[in-house]
Specification:
- The protein has helices at about 35-50, 80-85, 90-95, 115-120, 145-155, 155-165, 170-180, 185-205, 205-220, 225-240, 240-255; strands at about 10-15, 20-25, 55-60, 65-70, 100-105, 110, 125, 130-135, 170, 185.
- It is an alpha/beta fold.
- It has a 6-stranded mixed sheet, sandwiched between helices. Strands 4-6-8-9 form a 4-stranded mixed sheet.
- A hairpin with a 2-residue loop joins strand 1 (about 10-15) and strand 2 (about 20-25).
- The longest helix has 17 residues, at about 185-205.
């Protein structure tokens, strides 16, 4: 059961304990994202940040063919002008604003905005049949949801250039070798493994998990000295929480901690 209802059938959200599973549910269109789906993902991001009941999130696509191929190209002409298109609210922006850890379970194609969607998650695991591409150049434009910056942070400048300048796909094995994903699994093991990872993270003190996510973002955006200072500040903040007090007590008493996000 879940406390969130997307309002559109193409975004399904289920919740088991502290883990929410979000499924892009448009398999007949390779889980490409319409503007209505984008709005639902944005609403979910707001809800997830406000919910004390969700501590980790899994994002996946319906079926075994595709995680997502990004925005449905046929809907892009709804934007009246290029300026309106440039200033649109993007679902990848919303996903990156989620403070809880997010795991992408990449089943099949992750192309264009679908690759940006996966890159907007914190941990990426993939099925053996997963395929990754930044194909926008073949259509006359480039990615606009963070493609280049996020790819470069994951796979380096040369590999990013190869993907964004050719538009050609790479398979799961190459994605693993390049560091784009952390694990590859048989299709039937992908979602269970993603949920397993989410449950592990959800069992950790939630403020510390959210802070670890914020700290990772800072590590990529701050000079080294500032990043270390920021990390130390965050450590001091988390050390003073009730959850950290409980963690120390549980360690001393050789028991599992019970954490309340306080």
């Amino acid at each position: 059961m879940t406390g969130f209802h997307s309002g559109v059938a193409e975004i399904l959200v289920t919740q088991d304990a502290a883990v929410a599973v979000v499924t892009m549910n448009r398999p007949e269109k390779l889980n490409s994202v319409t503007q209505e789906m984008s709005a639902a993902l944005e609403a979910f991001a707001v809800w997830a940040n406000e919910s004390d009941d969700v501590r980790a999130i899994v994002l996946t696509g319906a079926g075994q063919r595709s995680f997502s191929t990004g925005s449905d190209i046929r809907t892009l002409d709804r934007y009246a002008t290029p300026w309106e298109f440039r200033n649109r609210r993007d679902y990848c922006d919303a996903l990156r604003e989620i403070r809880k850890p997010v795991i992408a379970a990449i089943n099949g194609y992750a192309m264009g905005g679908g690759l940006e969607t996966a890159l907007s998650c914190d941990i990426r695991i993939a099925s053996e049949n997963a395929t990754f591409a930044a194909p926008e150049i073949k259509l006359g434009w480039i990615g606009g949801g963070g493609m280049t910056a996020l790819l470069a942070g994951s796979i380096g400048a040369s590999n990013t250039a190869l993907m964004t300048m050719t538009g050609d796909p790479i398979d799961a094995q190459r994605a693993l070798a390049w560091g784009l994903v952390s694990e590859i699994l048989p299709s039937d093991r992908l979602l269970p493994r993603a949920v397993e990872l989410a449950r592990i993270i959800a069992s950790r003190p939630p403020i510390a998990a959210e802070t670890a996510k914020a700290n990772l973002s800072a590590a990529f955006n701050l000079p080294l000295a500032q990043a270390v200072a920021y990390e130390r500040d965050l450590q001091g903040i988390t050390f003073a929480t009730d959850d950290a007090t409980e963690g120390r007590a549980a360690f001393a008493e050789k028991r599992s901690g019970v954490f309340h996000r306080r």
